């Protein structure tokens, strides 16, 4: 560290991270305390250099209507083709008429708000860095490993294959968490059928190999930020899942990197955002793309979102995943080695959100 750089003098990042973590109040605690400037650990120094920061309106993430996919073969064929195209080019799409009632979506968002509006003492009792607790609540899962902190708090729970006991879930959103998760899993099974068909596989293929076995429900809160231009709600990253189903509120802030432009994933009433995860890109041998995305900070929050990761994540599993044999050939050899979901996610957790994809680490070395 050079003495001439006065801004660097007296900045002990590790101590500041530790002090923030030990409050167990998260980002919302800072906002509730009335801060007018964000702590330095949240300052993203190269934000303006990271491609176009404005949110392009030239593109739009595809919206796909799932109405009639089970009743009309011709309609299903059209939907499958749209999903194939979106998964290959965008890695993202929104779905409407997906079968989950709007009342359930609204109640789920209200439940997340209810969790974060609880008394600080209640939430502090749930705050933990143990990723395998039945319910995990903290700020920044990668607080100690990532280069910079994000302006968000999170609670999450593994809802499948081994759901928690009801008493382990927060009373303020217990019932809706269970209901929403059940509906999510049903939708996931439908989506994996459509994705299988988009890959020209048996419709049951992705479900049969366990893509829908695990469900991790992750509930984010992005409080209003006094200096949103200096930080991010979520750093540029890809998801370590097969697919992710995202419920977002009306505030927006999610952006996807498309043709080197940040494109706003604008909220559509009643819609859910679907994105391809890293492990789906791995098993499809790069046919479907896990695309970088981020969340910009906002000044009007709190924004809430619910990301349902179809993955067994860190839960014990010895099941190996590699490129699907029907999708590889002499001309298109496997690009990735086999791995377990747990190994993949453990690698992600150890690195944190550092702005780069973990997938190259799992590439076949002789390519």
TrEMBL record:
For this chain, the family text in UniProt reads: Belongs to the iron/ascorbate-dependent oxidoreductase family.
> Could you say which residues form the signal peptide?
none
Tell me which residues make up the Fe2OG dioxygenase domain: 211-313
Q: Identify a single GO molecular function assigned to this protein.
A: metal ion binding
Q: Which cofactor does it need?
A: Fe cation
Q: What is this protein called?
A: Fe2OG dioxygenase domain-containing protein
User: What PANTHER family is this protein classified in?
Assistant: OS03G0690500 PROTEIN, OXIDOREDUCTASE, 2OG-FE II OXYGENASE FAMILY PROTEIN
